[in-house]
Known about the structure:
This protein is mainly alpha-helical.
Amino acid sequence: MDPKTINRAPTTPLAKPAGTTPLLRPPAAINGNSSLSSSRSGGTDPRGLASTILVLSRWLQNLVIGVWLGAILTVGVIVATVAVSVMKTPVAAGTIIGPAVNDVTKLGGICGVIYLVMLLIHDPLWKKYHPTVSNALLSFLKTVLAAAMVGASGYLLYRVGPQMTHYLTVAHVVNGHLTGVAGRAFDWWHKLYVQVTQGIFGGGLLLLLLTQMSGRKR
């Protein structure tokens, strides 16, 4: 037998004492995932917050447009038809339709303002986190269209509506119909009111389409 083999003591790895930790940490433990360390420390991911704001603002945009269009349809079709069929004369029906239309016009203006506010929140935030997806043209069109609809609602509320009320008050009523110069003037303002409302409704449909087109990755 080789003397070197006899005199060589067997070597065994030293056992690590219990409760000790290595002095050097692996790189993964030091430079861990930023999102994981952020969640453990209670931090908030800005992209996650931005995504939530984008979803909510888009949802509110669609909601207010739907409420606006639904109110116009409800009063312009259902309420007007029922009022005319029940009251039999235009003047009597106007006592029901007039206040309802006025409330819808106010509601439309409020919905338009809310839409513009949500638009000012959504589109710049979308541009910040999706710089490669350009929606500049759509944002411009939505802003102009929504502002025009709000302006048209204000025109109906503060200009056309008072004129209709004035001529309705001074016009002569014969068999439930307005007659004379005041009656013809009322008819003219009433037709204008209907035409502007139809324009608002058409603009609302287009605005709803543009809202669905914008804010999407292409």
